[in-house]
Specification:
About 35% of the residues lie in helices and about 20% in strands. With about 260 residues, the protein is an alpha/beta fold. α3 crosses α4. This is Esterase.
Length: about 260
C-alpha cells in the first residue's frame, strides 16, 4: 500500500507520498517539481512508483500554481516565470530543512522536474550540494539564453513586455547565478539523467543536447552516471519510457 498525505511544509502545499507505515522513518527523498501551469496532483503516478521503490516523495505546488494559484491567465503568469523558478529553488531548501529537523531525511536526496520543474532542478544543482541525483524531463539548464528567447518570442507575438530594457538586463544578470552552463564544475560528477523529445516546440531539444555533449568529458571516468534519453517523435509531453527510466535512475543511484 502507498500512502498519500496532503500537507503544508513551511506553508507550502505538498503531496507527501510514502509506503504504508514508513512515514516516520528516515528515508531517501525525491522531490518532484511540476511544469508551468501544472500542479502537484498531475504527477502522482511518479510519486506512486517512486514510493514503491522505498523513497519518500514530496510533490510541492510552485508559487501561483495549484492551490497557490490566484487565477491569473497563463499569458500574465508567463511574466512571473523566473520569479516562480527562483522561489521554487529556495523552497526546496526550506522543505528539506523542515524534514531534516524532524529526522525524516537520509543524506540521499534527489530532484526531478518536468519542463519548468526540470529548469528548476538544473538551477538547484548550482546552489545545493545536498542534491545527490538529478533528472530533467524536457527542462533546460540555459537560464539566461532561455529567458532571452522567451522575451524575443513574446515580442514576436506582439505582447506588451512589462519590463524596461534595464530591468531585463538585471533579470538576465541575476539568472546567471543559477545558470549551470556558466558553472559546470557545480555538477561535480553527480548522476544526471536528461530526457527530451526531438519535436519539443516549448523547450527546444538542441540546446539541452548541446549541454549534454559539453559535459560528457566530465563524466569520462564514470560514464554510467550521465545519460541522455532522446525520443525522435516525442513533443512537449513526458512519455512512459521517460517515466520508467526516471524511476529506474533513482533506484540505481539514490538507494
Amino acid at each position: 500500500m502507498i500512502e498519500i498525505h496532503h500537507e503544508y511544509i513551511r506553508h507550502i502545499p505538498v503531496l507527501h507520498v510514502v509506503k504504508e507505515g514508513r512515514k516516520n522513518e528516515k528515508l531517501p527523498l525525491v522531490f518532484f517539481l511540476h511544469g508551468f501551469t501544472s500542479a502537484k496532483e498531475h504527477n502522482l503516478h511518479f510519486g506512486y512508483l517512486l514510493a514503491e521503490k522505498g523513497f519518500r516523495v514530496i510533490l510541492p505546488d510552485a508559487n501561483l500554481h495549484g492551490e497557490r494559484s490566484d487565477g491569473r491567465h497563463s499569458e500574465k503568469l508567463a511574466f512571473e516565470f523566473w520569479n516562480i523558478v527562483l522561489q521554487s529553488i529556495r523552497e526546496l531548501n526550506d522543505i528539506k530543512e523542515e524534514l531534516s529537523q524532524k529526522g525524516l531525511v537520509s543524506s540521499q536526496i534527489g530532484v526531478v522536474g518536468t519542463s519548468m520543474g526540470g529548469i528548476t532542478m538544473f538551477g538547484a544543482l548550482t546552489q545545493y550540494d545536498w542534491i545527490k541525483v538529478g533528472v530533467s524531463l524536457m527542462g533546460s539548464p540555459y537560464y539566461e539564453k532561455f529567458a532571452r528567447d522567451q522575451i524575443e518570442s513574446l515580442e514576436k507575438a506582439e505582447m506588451t513586455i512589462p519590463f524596461s530594457e534595464n530591468e531585463l538586463k538585471e533579470i538576465y544578470t541575476g539568472l546567471r547565478k543559477y545558470d549551470l552552463t556558466f558553472q559546470l564544475d557545480r555538477l561535480a560528477g553527480r548522476p544526471l539523467l536528461i530526457w527530451h523529445g526531438k519535436k519539443d516546440k516549448v523547450v527546444p531539444f538542441q540546446p539541452t543536447f548541446d549541454f549534454y555533449e559539453k559535459i560528457k568529458a566530465d563524466y569520462e571516468k564514470t560514464p554510467e552516471r550521465l545519460y541522455f534519453l532522446a525520443e525522435d517523435n516525442a513533443e512537449h509531453k513526458v512519455t512512459r519510457k521517460a517515466f520508467l527510466k526516471t524511476v529506474d535512475w533513482f533506484g540505481k543511484f539514490l538507494q
